[in-house]
């Protein structure tokens, strides 16, 4: 059986530079990430954090790759909702210009077998990336006060392979 | 072992009625689906067809027609390289989430390692991103369709 991983591709009418900025800027991420935000000085080896506004724990990690505006990768250790015992996973973003758009590919892998985190992120990323697309294209984010319930419930997979 | 399937979820700020129209109205699909128009009577059991500039690209039968909630159809590609592959199935599920619609596309009953699986895995993210942009901004995306869909042959 293959290892659990999550792969998602989304096309955004923008430039790689703008999308890369949205992925790494705390203030911008807070808009489309529904109050959560990324924090790092984005040097390879530096700490990375995803501050979760509705939890007292957060996602932490380390910057693995920072190659604007093409590639970004960090480790992802979730400490909220009792996930602290799982080993860190890895998030990689790839940005490619295609005509007037950006093809953004996210690969979230490195999960241990039976991971609970992979179930959560498989529900979470489609919403966050849909919201990111709206934010970059329209300047508005998806109105999603139900964000927390969405990622906390349901066993379905959304894009997971 | 389970057959390959492709599942993709996106969230679109629109109404269920508008999104349903965008999925079933040829004037809409032509704008976000690489220029392909869909035509059908849209009853369970009736045929449907996508065509670009009159040349058919995809055809099949309507399996489920439950407006604003669920649409499903069988999927036969008119591409000659996919001719020997079995008929697959596409299901659109729409769930309202406040002002946003959660749209999940499930494409299953695909041949393992087949051309159709490869093409639709590349194609759906483009089509659905373009659909989302059209609904939210009024502008579809200009994307390059997967290469195989450019060499269409007429369906039988």
Describe this structure in words.
The complex is a heterodimer of chains A (161) and B (156). In chain A, 27% of the residues lie in helices and 32% in strands. Chain A has 4 helices and 7 strands. A 7-stranded antiparallel beta sheet of chain A has the order 1-7-6-5-4-3-2. Chain B is α+β, with helices and mostly antiparallel strands and 156 residues long. Chain B is built from 3 helices and 7 strands, in the order βααββββββα. Chain B has helices spanning 16-24, 26-32, 115-137, and strands spanning 6-12, 37-40, 47-52, 55-66, 70-77, 88-97, 100-108. Chain B has a 7-stranded antiparallel beta sheet. The model of chain B is unreliable at 148-152 (pLDDT under 50). Chain A binds chain B through residues 8-13, 98-101, 126-127, 130-131, 133-134, 137-138, 140, 142-146, 150, 156-160, and chain B through 7-13, 97-100, 102, 104, 125-126, 129-130, 132-133, 136-137, 139, 141-144.
Strand order of the largest sheet of chain A: 1-7-6-5-4-3-2
In this structure, how is the largest beta sheet of chain B organized? Answer: 7 strands, antiparallel
Count of helical regions of chain B: 3
CA(first)-CA(last) distance of chain B: 33 Å
Per the principal axes of the C-alpha atoms, what is the gross shape of chain A? globular
Q: What pair of chains forms the biggest interface? A: A-B, 30 and 26 residues
Topology of chain A as a string of helices (H) and strands (E):
EHHEEEEEEHH
What is the arithmetic mean of pLDDT of chain B? 90
Uncertain runs of chain B: 148-152
Alpha carbon gyration radius of chain A: 15 Å
Estimate the mean pLDDT confidence of chain A: 88
What is the chains' assembly state?
A: heterodimer
DSSP summary, beta strand count of chain B: 7
Q: Find the structural class of chain A using helix and strand composition.
A: alpha+beta
Q: SSE order of chain B in H/E notation? A: EHHEEEEEEH
Sheet with most strands of chain A: 7 strands, antiparallel
